[in-house]
Amino acid sequence: MDLVGYDRQVFDRIVTEYRQFAEPLGIPDITCIPLSALKGDNVVEASENMSWYTGKPLLEYLETVHIGSDKNFADLRYPVQYVMRPNLDFRGFSSTVASGIIRKGDEVVALPSMKRSRVKSIVTYDGEPDFAFPPQAITVTLEDEIDISRGEMLVHPDNLPIISRNFEAMLVWMDEKKMDPEEFYERALPYMKEVITKDYDFKKIAQMVKTRIEIFPDIRDHIDFFETLPEYDIAMYTHKKMKANAETSLKVLKDVLPILEAQEDFSNDALFAALSAYVSETGVKTGFVMWPIRTAVSGKQMTPGGATELMEVLGKEESLARIRKGIELLSQAQ
After folding, report:
1. With the C-alpha atoms ordered 261, 264, 265, 266, is the resulting torsion angle positive or negative?
2. How many CA atoms lie within 13 A of 23 on its CB side?
3. Is it the case that residue 70 has pLDDT exceeding 80?
4. Are 64 and 55 in contact (CB under 8 A)?
5. Looking at the predicted structure, is the pLDDT value of residue 319 above 80?
6. Could you give the percent of the chain with pLDDT greater than 70?
7. 3-state secondary structure of 155
8. pLDDT of residue 242
9. What angle do CA 19, 21, 27 make, to 5 degrees?
10. Residues forming beta bridges with residue 327, ordered by sequence position
11. How crowded is the C-beta side of 135, counted as CA atoms within 13 Å?
12. Which residues contact 78 (CB under 8 A, 6 or more apart)?
């Protein structure tokens, strides 16, 4: 404010412009304080140079601003951070309650597996309370021995979060050069066409590979499988973390083949929805299903996109042909 002579009209104009800018963001609480960091005006004590400002100085505001009502006690969100197994008789899931209230006896659902159980106990350093709320750090034990790992989330079955592969965001571009979404595609296209001659959607491939490369020539090795399925070892179907192996992969591919054959909409979202229904029905994890499919359609361990994204680009006929080939290879090895 010292640069504009502590002018109230300048401050009011900036506040108006900023509130107009922030309105689409839906931010409920915005407080504007006129400051001069150089002179110390309204930083610790009220400024004599801005007697027209009657609010609190910055430090006092930060020390007294009310944030208690910002906590969400309605929607239980308990993201598991650590699985505690001190002995064979105890299996607890440790984390901080992000939102909502969790009580002993509550029915909970583990996401994304959708497996259900009830809260057996809530363990803290001070004992076992009947309930916990944010931001308490606790350990939860369940009545049933279900497979939950770090990164999964416990929620109430009647209050599930929205599950989606898409999100909306407001992107702020800070570079002096104007952002051109088409620039990457135009520069990547010659490299894609070096290894792909088929009529695929190159823009979708470019979007997939965009965050996977450091230099444009890297594109070729990431996407060459779209042109022709490479020869691959069935050992690739084994993934310790996904708990997948050749035997389980063969069953998954046989199970999902008729589902995909009946699928008319071969878009990414539709494919993911169809396979998610199979995941829920069988009670397995999403990765357990997607890993063998992705391996079958790509013949690679590392790909620029997930199984359904790859199938969307490959199309129904080619995707099914590659899955049938995977079934054939795995069956021969039995």
Report:
1. positive
2. 6
3. no
4. no
5. yes
6. 99
7. strand
8. 81
9. 65
10. none
11. 5
12. 93, 95, 97, 98, 100, 102, 108, 140, 153, 154, 155
- Is residue 206 within 8 A of residue 188, CB to CB? The reply is yes
Token match 């995909």: residue? 260
Amino acid found at 75: D
* DSSP string over 107-152: EEEEETTTEEEEEEEEEBTTB--SEE-TT-EEEEEESS-----TT-
How much is the mean pLDDT over the chain?
A: 92
DSSP for 25-47? GT-S-------BTTTTBTTTB--
Structure tokens belonging to residue 105: 């006896």
The pLDDT score that the predictor gives to residue 68 is: 64
Radius of gyration of the chain (CA): 27
Segment 134-163 mean pLDDT = 93
Burial of 22 (0-12, 13-18, 19+ CB in 10 A): exposed
The per-residue b/e assignment along 137-170, b for 16 or more CB within 10 angstroms, e otherwise, is ebbbbbeeeeebeeebbbbbeeeeeeeeeeeeee
Are 285 and 113 within 8 A, CB to CB?
yes
E runs forming strands in the chain: 78-79, 82-84, 92-96, 102-103, 107-111, 115-123, 131-132, 137-142, 153-155
Tokens representing 96 are 């901080």
* Distance (Å, whole) CA 237 – CA 254: 14
- Tokens of residue 276, six digits: 């998610």
The structure tokens listed for 308 are 């359904």
